[in-house]
Amino acid sequence: MLLSLTLADFVLVDRLSLDFHTGFSVLTGETGAGKSILLDALALALGERADSSVVRAGAERAEISVEFDTRGLDGLALWLAQQELDAEDGQLLLRRVIDVGGRSRAFINGRPATAQQLKEAGSFLIDIHGQHAHYSLLKAAEQRRLLDSFAGAGELAAQVNTAWHDWRAARLRRERAESQSSEFAAERERLSAMTTELASLAFSPDAWQTLQEEQRRLAHAAELQQGAQLAAEALEGDDAGLLIQLRVIRARLADLAQIDAELEALHARLDGVAEELHDTARELHRYGERVELDPEALMQAEMRLSAIQAAARKYHVRPEGIPAALAEALQALADLGECADLDVLQAEEQAAETAYRRLGEALSVRRCEAAVRLCEAVTQAMQQLAMQGGRFNVALEANEAAAYGLEDVVFQVSPHAGQSVQALAKTASGGELSRIGLALQTVLSGVSGAPTLLFDEVDAGIGGGVAEIVGRLLAGQGRDRQVLCVTHLPQVAARATWHYHVSKRETEGGARSAVRLLLPQERVEEIARMLGGVQITAATRQHAQEMLEAA
């Protein structure tokens, strides 16, 4: 249940901290006092879209904090655990901060969260019925949604919607294949030629590197052979070779070492150099003998190199990208084959239609069962709302398959005994529509799993004895759950266990709204004001006192 609401610099509120209680509570006050501000704040804390207009003039940011008792809400506990936002000691804190630039931040139990997470958490906590909800009853989509909600078939309806779109997509694929068969054939021919050509290259990036190295070696074979031989001769030629000169130097150092032993170490180092040069000369001779002039091999290498480069230019890729291009073409050819295979596409379309109709029929069964129960419950509620003898009916009219199912949902009503049922939009007057809307919301709130119900002036357009009955209905809801109601009706306010008053005052800094819980005698004054307007007489106060005592 809702425990507290704290506001800072929100619209006309500078600072407000409000505690809530179990049972039935009402919020009353003059028109324009700011009752809607509290509801807007709750809506923002529950993830509604925010903008800078909610920041009090002159302030940098608005802050909203809402605390809930979550004990017994196993579904919410599981969701919080999955989101790693576990509540501590069964309490949950939702917080929203909106700055003057319109940027918004959200927190759950002190941890950063998204607005969507606030909405998901709020769905476990509060069920809100707005003051204009009865007007939406005239819309077919809203009637369908309410029936599905009452049937507990919201998830099944979503599955039907998904299945319908899958079926439509399969049908479009089949129709496209039929209408574009010639284009598919041309594209398939192009891709087939491309994959054949690229696959024939038997290309890999490593092979490409090896091929380039081999072509360079074959193209410069004569130069490599001649260079190796010249280098070998330069090392050990008979007359001017480096080894011959080194031999003379070593002999001279050997003689000098006889004079100065310090030169022996240098003479020994020249021995190692001579051996290394000799080995190098032998390797150069062997390399020169291995290098062959092979024009045929060179021609083959250059032809393959040219073929790979030509294919790369043709398909607008680098040579290294040929394997990836081949893989993409093969996949596109496979996909095109599936698209062009009408038998396969027709089978997929049929399977998608079968899946849709199976789900749609299951939804129809749920709707039929729920429609009977909803008719009985709303009809019973109507009898208490000055519509004795009236009847409520839900007609399920078969239609062409649609995203929402296999039937249209039509709410029908007979406001009074002896009248035939007709579509809600054609029969009910404004006041009757308000009462039917309230009956529906009362019935639907009974199937809601939220521990807190919020009614925002759902009693608009109702008065007299009916208003007293509305108060009884809402108070009855408050015996099982926490009920909050914004109302202008004294008959409803008198039935509340807790009464909050919203007021507005003018200050030097502008208008300010305030909310406080009324004491018993203050409740008398507020209900008297609601009864008598500006001039409150002793008789009006007496009437207010009697209403509270009767309640």
Describe the structure.
- There is one protein chain.
- With 551 residues, this protein is an alpha/beta fold.
- Among the domains are: 1-125 and 452-459 and 480-517, P-loop containing nucleotide triphosphate hydrolases (Rossmann fold), CATH 3.40.50; 186-338, no CATH class; 519-551, no CATH class.
- It contains 20 helices and 15 strands.
- The chain has helices spanning 35-45, 74-82, 115-122, 133-136, 140-151, 154-179, 181-200, 205-219, 221-236, 242-259, 264-290, 295-314, 322-340, 342-383, 424-427, 430-445, 464-480, 490-493, 520-532, 538-550, and strands at 2-10, 13-19, 24-28, 61-69, 91-99, 104-108, 111-113, 126-129, 391-402, 405-414, 422-423, 452-456, 482-486, 498-507, 510-517.
- The strands form 3 sheets. It has a 6-stranded antiparallel beta sheet with strand order 2-1-4-5-6-7. It has a 6-stranded mixed beta sheet with strand order 8-12-13-3-14-15. Strands 9-10-11 form a 3-stranded antiparallel beta sheet.
- Helix 17 (464-480) links the parallel strand 12 (452-456) and strand 13.
- Helix 6 runs antiparallel to helix 14 (342-383) and helix 8 crosses helix 12.
- The two termini are 24 Å apart.
- The mean pLDDT is 84.
